[in-house]
Amino acid sequence: MKRFLFGLICCVLVHSAMAQINVIPKPTQVLTAKGAWTLKAKTKIGAPADAKWSHVAEMLAAQLGKATGQPVSTAKGKGDITLAVSSDASLGEEGYRLLSTPKGVTIQAQTAKGAFYGVQTLLQLLPAEVFSETPVAGVKWTVPYVTIKDVPRYAYRGLMLDVCRHFMPIEFVKKYIDLIALHKQNQFHWHLTDDQGWRIEIKKYPELKTISSKRKETMKGHYGDHKYDGKPYEGFYTQDEIKEVIKYAEDRFVNVIPEIEMPGHALAALAAYPQLGNNPDKIYEVGTKWGVYDDVFMPREETFKFLEDVLTEVIDLFPSKYIHIGGDECPKIQWKESRFAQGIIQKEGLKDEHGLQSYVIKRIDKFITAKGRRMIGWDEILEGGLSPNATVMSWRGIEGGIAAAKERHDVIMTPGNFCYLDHYQAEAKTQPIAIGGFTDLAESYSYEPTPAELSADEAKHILGVQGNVWTEYMKTPAYVQYMVWPRATALAEVGWTSKEGKNFEDFSKRMEIHKKRLDFLGVNYFGAPINGKFEYVWPEKK
Fold first, then answer.
1. Catalytic residue selected from 329, 399, 443, 453
2. What are the tens digits of pLDDT across the range 284-328?
3. What angle do CA 515, 521, 523 make, to 5 degrees?
4. What EC identifiers does the entry list (predicted)?
5. CATH 3.30.379.10 residue ranges in the chain?
6. Measured between alpha carbons, how far is residue 67 from residues 122, 131, 358 in Å?
């Protein structure tokens, strides 16, 4: 009977606590008590004598110091705030336990990564002003007495950014990663090549940066308007800049997944190397309109050599175990009309052009696997037969994910109607121009990544969920932010919080506090005070 009463009391505390603890994503378990711990004038953060743990402590100290204007030091061992190694195997790689008592705050985790996520929760337990880049006076820096145990639901929690249609500067890419980390997401999917621009330096093929990174003009207005701005557009990242971003992400426990598109979405590459196309005598130009082009790679040995050379440099740059090769929206018309392509189909005993795409993908999969990595592709890689080691990113609804999981392939769920953050999020006539569709905050939040059609064993292959950001109509970092947050915040909770723990009404209440944090972080989110250009009107600019 006593055990029952204790369990009932704990249950009541957990549920009542969630209205008070405005943490996003919602933690797994929360118990609160009356009172709060207050930061000291000279707060000390203790951590194990390990480089990664020390780094987490130093990041926390730097942020607390900036916001409070008070000195915050780090030390080995215990402190007023202590990061400690836990022996609790149930926390896994990313889980943590946070305890706030009159003696201070302790964050326990099995890894520095788990401790980092505990730090993100600690920052959210403090007043929103803790995210300020400059000291804020008159704030009572307190942390409520609380016990939190928190473990993510899915291992893969991602956010993608397309920089091909509109190039994004390095400083914004870093801010994007900051926001990924704040929301306890762990994957940054960087879409680097497409018809409208090639954005990564490949030293063996220098014309990818001198030709493929530039287009003569860009569409303006709606796609159906067929209007162009007449202005040259360009941009690419050097390999040194790529390394800088990867290191920045690693410091925040975010993995960077590069995407190099093939065999479709190849027009920018063909503009520099036409011999890789289906008509080597054609003069190709980097794409200026949105949408899909018929110009795709021809699977000659020369093309495979090019793709393998490119991927070799990419793999040497990116430590990610995943390498994304696109594989989506590959028109087959040129292969149907090509005697060479038809010859490959006949020679290899392929059924049709879909089989030829599968042939290309399987060869690339074999190459990536031989390099010790794993290939990800959009769900079109299912067409013609799936590569043996491929992970499928299901975007055309959930059917591709279901089919792949039933074949025991790993799957990342990212269906357009829930996870495409280029859709309108309010009535179109009140919003800046977007590609179309409608996905509001509630719809993104409502998404359930594990399809009911899967058995328990099949469901284990659902790695997680990702939000996708295609930038055809997003010309500036401010517009990207406006379209991405807070819908990406909702998807972060979808990826982290248990199905039973989700509640949109509760999320909406916590989101009101979270918006104050985004204010201090300078995020141009949907719902912030904006001007006629849909840009945040900061208080000093009013």
1. 329
2. 999 999 999 999 999 999 999 999 999 999 999 999 999 999 999
3. 65
4. 3.2.1.52
5. 29-150
6. 14, 7, 54
How far is it between the farthest Cα atoms of the chain?
Answer: 84
Q: What is the mean pLDDT of residues 472-497?
A: 98
Q: For 156-536, CATH number? A: 3.20.20.80
Q: Are 108 and 97 in contact (CB under 8 A)?
A: yes
User: Can you tell me the distance from the alpha carbon of 231 to that of 475, in angstroms, rounded to the nearest whole number?
Assistant: 13
pTM of the predicted model, to two decimals? 0.96
- How many other CB atoms sit within 10 Å of the CB of residue 332? 18
- The answer to whether residue 337 is catalytic is no
Q: According to CATH, what is the number of the domain 29-150?
A: 3.30.379.10
Q: Which residues contact 444 (CB under 8 A, 6 or more apart)?
A: 418, 419, 421, 467, 487, 490, 491, 494
Every domain of the chain with CATH number 3.20.20.80 lies at 156-536
Q: What's the pLDDT tens digit per position in 240-253? A: 999 999 999 999 99
Task: Provide the 8-state DSSP code for 85.
Answer: E
Cα separation, 204 vs 306, whole angstroms:
9
**Where would I find the beta strands (DSSP E) of 379-433?**
391-394, 411-413, 423-424
Burial 505-517 (b: 16+ CB within 10 A, else e): eebeebbeebbeb
φ/ψ (deg, to 5) at 145: -65, 120
**DSSP three-state, residue 385:** coil
